[in-house]
Amino acid sequence: MNEEADPYCLAPGESAELLAGHPWRRFVVLGDSVAEGLCEPVEGYSELQWADRIAHELKQSRPELEYLNLGASGLRTREILSTQLERALVFGPDLALVVGGGNDAFPATYDPERVDRELTLMITALQDSGADVMTLGMFDVSYSPAVVEWLRPGLRQRMRTLSDRTAVLAEKLATIHVHLTDHPLSTDPSLYSSDGRHGNARSDAIATAETIRILARHLSRGC
Question: To the nearest whole number, what is the mean pLDDT of the chain?
Answer without folding.
Answer: 95
